[in-house]
Amino acid sequence: MSDRAPRRLRCPALLSALLLSGCQSLGTTEAPLQTLYRSSQCGPTPARELSARWLPDQASLDAAWQQLSRQQLSPPPAPQLQGDGAGALLIYQGVQPTGGYAIALAEPQLRIDGDQARIALQITRPAPDALTAAVITSPCLLLALPPLRVERVLITDAAGRALTSLPITPPAAARPSRY
User: Fold this and answer.
1) Higher pLDDT, 174 or 74
2) Is 153 exposed, middle or buried (0-12, 13-18, 19+ CB in 10 A)?
3) Is 61 helix (H, G, I), strand (E, B) or coil?
4) How far apart, in whole angstroms, are the C-alpha atoms of residue 101 and residue 67?
């Protein structure tokens, strides 16, 4: 008798091992998020509804920070991205007619599933009968994201309903050359 298993027994065992290892890598993973800035007055925003802007490198973050902090008398220096490939996400709640609006993280981490990352937000709106300041607000949230190998970020509310999504592009220096 040979020590080698017959061919018909080796193939199913190999196939099972490959399937099991593939299934383990298909699961959802988590990565930490860091809030860099949060305010109810973020200046002019692109829309009345929720929108987001990907900041793929420090130069993009510096430009966004300059715009965000221009209303402050003594603005702090721009936050620094940590690590190669890290980026930031600037989320606007849009121009709102009164006080009482805010956005914050619903979960302290993003969930990565395949080529998409998901960020859950806590969206605050005043009750219809609430007494609020008669001032136009424009809430925003600036997040630091670790280096990601995803194509899209999906932004949801705390219940998991999709609010918006955007493509993620690496900074120009990290993009593969066409040549």
Assistant:
1) 74
2) buried
3) helix
4) 20
Report phi then psi at 102, rounded to 5: -165, 160
Residue 61 domain flag? yes
Range of the domain at 37: 31-170
Q: What is the mean pLDDT of residues 41-60?
A: 86
Of 3 and 91, the structure prediction assigns the larger pLDDT to 91
Determine the Cα–Cα distance for residues 33 and 89; give it in Å rounded to an integer: 10
Rounded Cα distance, 54 and 143, in Å: 10
The 10s digit of each residue's pLDDT in 102-154 is 999 999 999 999 999 999 999 999 999 999 999 989 999 999 999 988 999 99
- The answer to whether residue 84 sits within a structural domain is yes
**Into how many domains does the chain fold?**
1
Please give the model's pTM, rounded to 2 decimal places. Answer: 0.79
The answer to whether position 10 is within a domain reads: no
What is the Cα–Cα distance from 88 to 144, expressed in whole angstroms? 4
